[in-house]
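Duplicate of earlier report; Orotate phosphoribosyltransferase input re-posted below.
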Amino acid sequence: MLSAEDLKNVGAKVKNLLCVIDRNQSGKENLFEAELLLHSLLTMEGLLAVTK
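Output:
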């Protein structure tokens, strides 16, 4: 989140973030509170499900 704030401080309009793996550790909710939307390609839960 620090990087998003740094970009905002220099005038960028940051609203969406992309991550590869969402580990489901409240990050999405924390970012939402900071008015940022997290988009993940995969979830940890999904990855674990296909490895069984």
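The CA atoms of residues 6 and 42 lie 26 Å apart.

Merging into the original ticket.
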